[in-house]
Amino acid sequence: MHRRPLASVSVILLSLTTVAAFSAPAAAQPGGDTRVSVGSPAGPFSQNKQNEPAVAIDPIHPNILVSGANDNIDMEVCNAGDDTTCPFTEGVGVSGVYFSFDSGTSWKQPIYTGYSARNCLGVAGRSDDECVPQTNGQIGTLPNYAEKGLVSDGDPALAFGPRRGTDGKFGWSNGSRLYYANLTSAMPGQAPFKGFEAIAVSHTDNVTEAANGTNAAWSAPVIASKQNSALFADKEQIWADNAASSSFFGNVYVCYAGFRSAGSGFGNQPLFVLTSRDGGSSWAQKQVTSATNNINSRNGFGRSGCTIRTDSRGVVYAFTYQFAYSATTAAAGKIQMIKSYDGGATWTRPVNVFTAYDTCNYVEASIGRCVMDGVGGARSDLSPPRRSTSPTTHRPGVRARPTASCSPGWTVGPASTTSRSCSPRPSTAAPPGAARGPSEWPVTGATTPRRRSRRTAATSGSCTTRSPPRSGRAPSGRGMTASWSA
Predict the structure, then answer these.
(1) How far apart are CA 51 and CA 465, in angstroms?
(2) Separation between Cα atoms, residue 185 and residue 91, nearest integer Å
(3) Can you tell me the distance from the alpha carbon of 319 to that of 386, in angstroms, rounded to the nearest whole number?
(4) Fewest 10 Å CB contacts: which of 169, 209, 246, 343?
(5) What integer pLDDT is reported at residue 481 of this predicted model?
(6) Other C-beta atoms lying within 10 Å of the C-beta of residue 371
(7) What beta strand segments (E) does 91-231 contain?
(8) What are 106-116's pLDDT values in tens digits?
(9) pLDDT at 69 (0 to 100)
(10) CA separation for the pair 176, 102 (Å, rounded)
């Protein structure tokens, strides 16, 4: 079992951070905070935990915002069953959703009906009070998944696009459609698709009813990724072509990393782009990068994490981070761009946009992953989000697992029975004259997918992880808030 650390999270438009006390939403002030996860409890842990947020704004109703996050609101608490463990409840979803109809001033967190373990509170000191989830319980996550044999597994990605009319054409005059992409796995004992994790997309044409907790306001989830028995689909992003001047107006695109090694992260791993031309009912898939993933090739550790956008002419731009490898220093990877000029039917070869250095600073033992700033720091396997000016200098005396080599930039020291000492090598400066890229490009990348037990065990991008107390419980009053400025 994996303990679930607390997380504070931030995004460009909405800064989402943990707060010290539960309170009702207040009017937002420029530079201030407004709570987004207003329906989440102050405690107990981990029902009060969210991370990895996303947000979308309706282009024709800019006062309407919808946010998503990994939300444990429907999970069993730590006292259920063995008090020394804090597991994810199998079959319970984590793709939370929140609505604002006043430009982020206040938020609403709906209550739907579905497979829920909110009732599993347990009794401290007892180990025989195992959780029995409710089939028709209250949920604060995407509805209609369990009915299809699926679990909403988080990694939320949201986008608004135009609706399709009865004539088959897309137009804003038909209204807006909200798309919500996320990871999905199978309910225990069911096999709705091949592989370990897939990409599913839901949509709603009525955000008012969706915000009121109406299950029927949401479509049934559609498996968008083309699955096989070894595929672990991960790290997706979504976008809808929203420009009426585009030849492909209304198309919806999803990019994702396809780990082909049963989720181990050490095999082939190409980047895929999915395209829907019918409002999300069906999807076509294209591989847009090499699948090679090894340190002896120019592809280094491969690539993953992505951002996808369109311009006013309908050109599609997919961005990703191509990891590099160095045994002596932080490796100089590349932010890459891939284009489609025909609505996702064909794609150009990846083109290097600028150099970006790995930010690994320390291997956090609780998650077995690189972080940027020492113990309990921000996870950096979805990094770098922007160009670094110099490689990372690793901290001295870092302790790595006996079975793992030191990260790039570390020298392996004497090994003991429990750990191995890693010390920093001298860092090198960035190449002179390296081009500076747009800092607002939210390009991220990673080389290892998260299995379900780690899905929300850490944060991504500019998020920050905080290790929990030994008991696995969080202080009360944690929540997600939104900051904004005029």
Answers:
(1) 9
(2) 9
(3) 12
(4) 169
(5) 56
(6) 25
(7) 95-100, 112-116, 134-139, 150-152, 157-164, 170-186, 198-204, 222-223
(8) 999 999 999 99
(9) 95
(10) 17
Cα–Cα distance, 279 to 288 (Å, whole number): 22
Q: How far is CA 377 from the centre of its chain?
A: 17
Q: Which of 234, 269, 229, 227 is nearest to 254 (CA)?
A: 234
Ranges in the chain, pLDDT < 70: 1-31, 81, 83, 122, 125, 127-128, 262-267, 293-302, 304, 327-329, 359-361, 372, 374, 376-486
d(CA 35, CA 52): 15
| Tokens 């999905």 found at | 184
> If DSSP codes are grouped into helix, strand and coil, which group holds residue 25?
coil
CA 73: distance to chain centroid? 17
DSSP code of residue 217: G
Question: In terms of residues, how long is the chain?
Answer: 486
| Residue-level pLDDT at 242 | 97
Write out pLDDT tens, residues 166-206.
Answer: 999 999 999 999 999 999 999 999 999 999 999 999 999 99
Buried b / exposed e along 112-123 (16+ C-beta atoms within 10 A): bbbbbbbebbbe
What CATH number has the domain spanning 38-364+439-460?
2.120.10
Determine the pLDDT at residue 43: 82
Res 340: pLDDT: 98
Residues 6+ apart with CB under 8 A from 451: 196, 232, 263
Q: Which residues contact 360 (CB under 8 A, 6 or more apart)?
A: 330, 370, 371, 372, 380, 392, 394, 407, 408, 409
Question: Which amino acid, 399?
Answer: R
In the three-class reduction of DSSP (H, G, I as helix; E, B as strand; rest coil), residue 211 is classed as helix
Kindly give the pairing relationship between strand 252-259 and strand 271-276: antiparallel
Distance CA 41, CA 155 (A): 21
Structure tokens, 443: 């390009």
Residue 189: which residues within 8 A CB-CB, separation 6 or more?
none
Tokens 């400066």 belong to 429
Cα-to-chain-centroid distance, residue 87:
20
Per-residue confidence (pLDDT) for residue 150, from 0 to 100: 98
CA distance 463 to 467: 13
Q: What is the torsion angle, in degrees rounded to the nearest 10, for the CA atoms of residue 120, residue 125, residue 127 and residue 132?
A: -10
Return the structure tokens found at 345.
């039917």
